[in-house]
């Protein structure tokens, strides 16, 4: 109960921050608050409380900090979008608030009906097909639309959708399932080069396929950000699955080669690199398309904010192009200052950290990969956006999760946060199945230890001399008694584990953790050590 009240307090804190922020901004910018806006804010606050109630009922052990951070970021984003609407006389904030309500409804459906995230593993190849179809759908003639030089949108009448945001989720499901099923083969090392153990040639197939797909997105859709994010997510999950640094080095080198080739082959990529390297050069600044004027304007906006910002409604963020989407971080920096944007980055860090903690706690390998991949994709997207605006890296075209204007991005990233909440709930739930699996692992370790002792005894017996046969036989008797003791202990542990397993099978329909234990444990050689078995 204390935990639920703590999360209720965090939810109420988000609502209070939203009310104070909107009141200050509207009073300063236009001197009044419209009744329609008050109604929309009230609906959003009610949905926040409903979300807390549904999580408390259906995901009682979940880390609700994830959703609280997501809601606070969405509120700050809508606050800045509404500020820009006043200057531009538009209604983007109202649409964004509607999309937030839709996203929360989707998240609540996941909380209520997805009790076990492992069901996603059954549809790994279906997820791959859906992800690739969504990723390549903007290339369909008559359906795809090109906006800002990138063909990453599909349009139905007056409405537009960015399918790549949803493709990110489906491909994460496939990556987690594929890498979980094949992690043993991918972890096998090949030859050593300069002290680094490289993978086998035949295991390079998956990373080559994903690299080709990423380069295809870069070439066909002219979208550097999406291709970079997908490839980085796959390489990160591959490293988590295998623990081999060589995969990171190979992935980094592969993408560097692809980017260098793209800079020389495609003008839109070379323009972004030149704008990054020489943003204040007059020829680069005035060039259209591909000039650095947008980037420089955003930098001056950040500089105008100083340490504490100009205050909500007192700056001029509307001077920056795409101030409510690609450059919303610069808009927030102008009115909230360096302290404000650092606080925003801290909220993102809390969200990502909560996701990584869930990945560390969950015992299921598929859940570890999925939670870590989703959290990493969130962190990587924030890094590329902030790094592009602050001249750390070239602009990629990605947008800030939860904050930038756009319904597809908001809904997809809210579902991402909901999945992290569901995984954290199962990670924090203690079940008797976990104890049963512990007994089974102990039994396997004891049996392997017995095999070691038998092998040592046989080797010793074969090399013994006739002169010491009496002493050897005495040692053999003591050794055999020790073996009988080990076997008896292992048998009792197995029986206890089986009893727990039968009890769990009769009382729950959730698959046992043993269903996800690597099959390679049973294939260990007789000389496998206790530490190796425990690691598996």
Automatic annotation (TrEMBL):
User: Could you confirm whether the keyword Nucleus appears in this record?
Assistant: no
Q: Where are the transmembrane segments?
A: 7-26, 38-54, 66-84, 96-113, 125-144, 164-181, 224-241, 247-266, 295-316, 336-357, 369-396, 402-423
Instruction: Give me the ranges of the annotated region Disordered.
Output: 455-479, 497-536
Query: Which InterPro entries is this protein grouped with?
Result: FtsW/RodA
| UniProt keyword list | Cell shape, Membrane, Transmembrane, Transmembrane helix
UniProt cross-references to Pfam families, sorted A to Z: FTSW_RODA_SPOVE (PF01098)
The UniProt GO MF terms for this protein read: lipid-linked peptidoglycan transporter activity
Composition-biased stretches, type Low complexity, lie in: 497-507
Cellular component terms per the entry's GO annotation? cell division site; plasma membrane
Give its localization: Membrane
Please verify whether the record's keywords include Transmembrane. yes
GO terms in the biological process aspect are: cell division; regulation of cell shape
Q: What is its membrane topology?
A: Multi-pass membrane protein
Q: What is the protein's name according to its record?
A: Cell cycle protein, FtsW/RodA/SpoVE family
Which organism was this protein described from? Answer: Bifidobacterium dolichotidis
Top-level taxonomy = Bacteria, Bacillati, Actinomycetota, Actinomycetes, Bifidobacteriales
């Amino acid at each position: 109960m204390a935990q639920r009240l703590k999360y209720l307090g965090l939810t109420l804190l988000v609502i209070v921050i939203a009310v104070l922020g909107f009141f200050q901004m509207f009073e300063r910018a236009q001197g009044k608050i419209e009744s329609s806006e008050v109604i929309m804010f009230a609906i959003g606050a009610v949905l926040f409380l409903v979300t807390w109630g549904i999580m408390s009922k259906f995901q009682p052990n979940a880390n609700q900090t994830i959703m609280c951070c997501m809601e606070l970021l969405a509120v700050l984003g809508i606050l800045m979008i509404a500020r820009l609407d006043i200057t531009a006389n538009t209604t983007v904030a109202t649409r964004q608030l509607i999309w937030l309500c839709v996203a929360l409804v989707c998240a609540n459906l996941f909380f209520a009906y997805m009790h076990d995230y492992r069901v996603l593993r059954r549809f790994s190849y279906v997820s791959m097909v859906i992800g690739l179809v969504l990723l390549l759908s903007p290339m369909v003639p008559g359906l795809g639309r090109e906006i800002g030089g990138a063909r990453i949108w599909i349009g139905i009448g007056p409405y537009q959708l960015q399918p790549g945001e949803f493709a990110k989720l489906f491909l994460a499901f496939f990556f987690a399932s594929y890498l979980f099923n094949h992690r043993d083969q991918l972890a096998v090392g090949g030859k050593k080069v300069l002290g680094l153990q490289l993978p086998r040639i035949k295991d390079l197939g998956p990373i080559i396929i994903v690299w080709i797909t990423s380069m295809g997105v870069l070439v066909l859709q002219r979208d550097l950000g999406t291709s970079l994010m997908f490839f980085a997510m796959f390489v990160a999950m591959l490293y988590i699955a295998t623990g081999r640094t060589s995969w990171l080095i190979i992935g980094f080198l592969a993408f560097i080669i692809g980017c260098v080739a793209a800079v020389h082959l495609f003008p839109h990529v070379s323009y972004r690199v030149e704008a990054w390297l020489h943003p204040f050069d007059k020829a680069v600044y005035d060039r259209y398309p591909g000039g650095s004027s947008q980037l420089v304007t955003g930098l001056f906006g950040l500089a105008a904010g100083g340490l504490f910002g100009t205050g909500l409604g007192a700056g001029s963020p509307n001077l920056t192009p795409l101030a409510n989407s690609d450059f919303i971080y610069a808009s927030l920096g102008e009115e909230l200052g360096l302290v404000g944007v650092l606080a925003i980055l801290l909220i993102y860090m809390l969200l990502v950290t909560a996701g990584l903690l869930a990945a560390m706690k969950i015992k299921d390998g598929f859940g570890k990969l999925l939670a870590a991949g989703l959290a990493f994709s969130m962190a990587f997207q924030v890094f590329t956006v902030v790094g592009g605006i602050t001249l750390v890296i070239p602009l990629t075209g990605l947008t800030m999760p939860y904050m930038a204007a756009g319904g597809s991005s908001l809904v997809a990233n809210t579902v991402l946060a909901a999945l992290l909440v569901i995984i954290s709930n199962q990670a924090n739930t203690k079940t008797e199945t976990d104890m049963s699996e512990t007994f089974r692992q102990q039994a396997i370790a004891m049996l392997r230890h017995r095999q070691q002792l038998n092998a040592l005894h046989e080797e010793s017996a074969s090399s013994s001399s006739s002169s010491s046969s009496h002493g050897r036989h005495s040692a053999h008797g003591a050794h055999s008694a020790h073996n009988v003791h080990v076997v008896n202990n292992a048998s009792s542990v197995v029986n206890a584990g089986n009893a727990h397993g039968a009890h769990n099978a009769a009382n729950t329909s959730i698959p046992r953790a043993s269903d996800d234990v690597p099959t390679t444990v049973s294939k260990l050689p007789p000389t496998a050590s206790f530490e190796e078995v425990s690691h598996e």
